[in-house]
Amino acid sequence: MTSTKYAAYKKSKYPFGIFMLIVAILYLIPALGVFLTSFRTDTEISLHGIWAVSGHLTLDNYLAVWSSSSTRIYMRNSFLVAIPATVISVILGTLTGYVLAKLKPRGTSFLTLFFVSGLFIPPQILLIPLFQLFNKVHLYDTLWPMIIVHSGYGISLCTLVMKNFFKNVPDELIEAALVDGASEPGILAKIVIPLSRPALGALATLQFTFIWNDFLYPLILARSESAQTVMVGILNMAGQYSTAYGAQAALSIVASLPTIVVFFLFQKQFIAGLTTGAVKG
Question: Per CATH, which fold does 68-275 belong to?
Answer without folding.
Answer: MetI-like fold (1.10.3720)
